[in-house]
Amino acid sequence: xxxLKPFSRRPALNTATILLVEREEDFQQRLAEVLVEETAVTLxxxxxxxxxxxxxxxxxxxxxxxxxxxxxxxSELSLxxxxxxxxxxxxxxxxxxxxxxxxxxxxAAVPPERLDTLRGLAASLRCTLLFAEDQTADGAxxxxxxxxxxxxxxxxxxxxxxxxxxxxxxxCTAPSNTNEADFx
Amino acid sequence: MxxxxxxxxxxxxxxxPTQFLKVTLEKWGRLTVAQQQxxxxxxxxxxxxxxxxxxxxxxxLALRHITELEMIYxxxxxxxxxxxxFQLVDPESDAPAVExxxxxxxxxxxxxxxxxxxxxKMKKNTDEAVWIRIAWGDSCSRPNNMRPTYVVHYxxxxxxxxxxxxxxxKPLLSQAMIIATRHQAIKDAHLSGRNFSAIRDLLMQExxxxxxxxxxxxxxxxxxxxxxxxxxxxxxxxxxxxxxxACEAFGGGxxxxxxxxxxxxxxxxxxxPNQTFAEREKPFNxxxxxxxxxxxxxxxxxxxSGIASTPITPLLSSIPRRGRNYFVITDKVSGxxxxxxxxxx
Lengths: 184, 345
Prior knowledge:
Chain A contains five helices and five strands, in the order E-H-E-E-H-E-H-E-H-H. By secondary structure, chain A is α/β, with parallel strands linked by helices. Chain A has a five-stranded parallel sheet with strand order 2-1-3-4-5, sandwiched between helices. The mean pLDDT of chain A is 88. In chain B, helix 1 (3-15) crosses helix 4 and helix 10 runs antiparallel to helix 12. Classes of the chains: A alpha/beta, B alpha+beta.
């Protein structure tokens, strides 16, 4: 199995690499263009449709610090493709180097079960779940700022903080079964 | 001036949008320069029509001049009304040698033999197309010029495009067409649409064809989004392959603006989880229609972005390959199991 391993290559100085996985290949391009505008750190962005990644690029591929799965909630196939890709990640990534980003969560056509499934998935893997707005430029820049915060920690560029520590603070929790009536 | 001429002129003025009317009248050239300059295009269409009727009476124009005006307009703006394509089959030995004058004479003489009281007008356009305008009448009435049929034929090709033809008129036109072009039969090409240039380009394959190549670099270079240095696509090769296959099936560059495709399914319903329908042995008749502003462009995008799986199914790739947009799909009943179990005809 061609697993993507987190520590198989040496890190480069002041560099961070992020992998954006999205089945529709739509939001990832805009997000990438905003991300590379960052000047404090040398940022590499790799875009993919799904895992496993092609074997050919293995030698030229730098160490990937953060893997982000972009899931469009209006499409069931998007979620399924992300779930299928998870198998190709080495377990070492799940210590804070994987993040889920959901788009179109406000859309009325989204069945609530899909969001619950996604939250359950993120909670069981102890990963962060972010929500992004993909239709406007502001949405892309907000999403990129949040990703950069997590990425800098995951790449080890923030002193006194590790990816595992940050993920303990930001990880998704499973939706609990409280009824709204209980709040009265 | 006769009533029919007046009503035809009024209908034309109503139909033609004002900006085209000016250009069309100039091309027509039957009004004097002074009259042309005097026309006030900002008045209402009714008043404009009255003015034109007055000028035509002044110049002593006849019905055939008015139909000339209509023909000029239709040739320049053919994308209206529903066009149907037909194909001539079984050419005789001298079919490729048919040239314009011969075609004109043969068509007119045979047509007048077949139908009485019909007025036929022919014009050869600069791009080798022969446009024929037919106003039908029968033994008791004069030709009805308000609902003419337009036929376009490209000489030396087996394609004929027709608009506004009723089923009673069809055999007469077919007969005349077959004799004039020296073929033996004419059949329906199953291609129709509102956009004449689109169906013509599709049938005569006048769009950019892409052929299989070992190093498809030209296509890739043209389509690549300018990439920033730090962004890299991991699965770029797969993407390029998909784009290449999509372009091979549908064509590169600008595609003819076909607007709909209809599949008539007469297959049995196959869906293992759904038991209520699956038990029936009789075919499940169903019609699937795809419509879009530019259907071929959308299908090509579906294939290149991975929504439609590659290699592209022959159901979709037959649209440009065979130049049709109406398909009837039946199950193949008996045959070796290794063949695909759907026939497209």
